[in-house]
Write a structure and sequence with these properties.
Helix 4 packs across helix 5 and helix 4 (about 135-150) crosses helix 6 (about 175-185). This protein starts with a helix and ends in a 12-residue tail after the last helix. The protein has helices at about 5-20, 30-40, 65-75, 135-150, 155-165, 175-185, 190-195, 200-205, and strands at about 25, 50-55, 80-85, 95-100, 105-115, 120-125, 130-135. By secondary structure, the protein is an alpha+beta fold. The relative contact order is 0.17. About 40% of the residues lie in helices and about 20% in strands.
């Protein structure tokens, strides 16, 4: 599986955050890619240009505290990026950070961080010697199945794609998925949109950008 230059840098940042002890666990496409690599998936997957994460602490952090903590972790690891907060978190809104090249001033990628929301099942991943804490595969499967069982499937077509990737290397444990969703206060809906609205589903899929990137370095 190919890892883009930006994704390699994002993994460097995730490793730095993990080693710093900041109360952050990761989720989203970067964790999915790591989970597939660990499971032996070798085909290319969709590319991403952002990091998704959860920050869980006893007291809500200020924006300044989050920027300072992230910047210290990145600087300590010799990564030439500056952290900027462009969106403060709030109710149903994640904190948004820009990771900026300290030489050119250009934004390399962004980072969305949910603060003190649901605590997901996590595990430690390792990609090319870089370790970080991320959402466990079974949690990802449960969350994606719940999403595509509703009409959100037309906005979350990437979850259908991701489940296709995961189906090649993971067994589906129906009872465990239902248990996780129940513990999270969620239920599986009827899959009406996925099963019966073919044209809308196809339109959403055709609009989706996979954006594969070819590079020379592998993990």
């Amino acid at each position: 599986m190919n890892i883009s230059t930006e994704e390699k840098l994002m993994y460097d940042v995730m490793k730095a955050v993990y080693e710093s002890g900041i109360p952050i666990s990761f989720k989203g496409s970067m964790v999915l890619k790591a989970c597939l690599i660990e499971a032996g998936y070798s085909d290319d997957t969709r590319h991403t240009i952002d990091i998704d994460a959860n920050w869980n602490s006893d007291t809500p952090p200020s924006g300044e505290q989050m920027v300072e903590s992230l910047q210290k972790a990145i600087t300590r690891n010799g990564i030439g990026l500056k952290v900027g907060l462009y969106r403060m978190y709030g109710e149903n809104r994640s904190a948004g950070f820009e990771l900026i090249d300290d030489k050119t001033g250009g934004v390399i990628f962004t980072m969305d961080v949910d603060v003190n929301r649901h605590v997901a099942i996590t595990k430690t991943y390792e990609v090319g010697g870089m370790r970080f804490c991320g959402v466990a595969p079974i949690q990802m499967i449960a969350d994606k199945i719940e999403a595509i069982s509703t009409d959100r499937v037309f906005r979350r077509i990437k979850d259908v794609v991701d489940l296709y990737y995961m189906s090649g290397v993971f067994k589906f444990d129906r009872a465990e998925v239902i248990r996780i969703l129940r513990d999270d206060g969620k239920t599986i809906s009827s899959f009406d949109g996925f099963l019966h609205h073919y044209e809308e589903l196809r339109h959403a899929y055709e609009k989706f950008r996979f954006f594969f990137v070819q590079i020379s370095e592998n993990p």
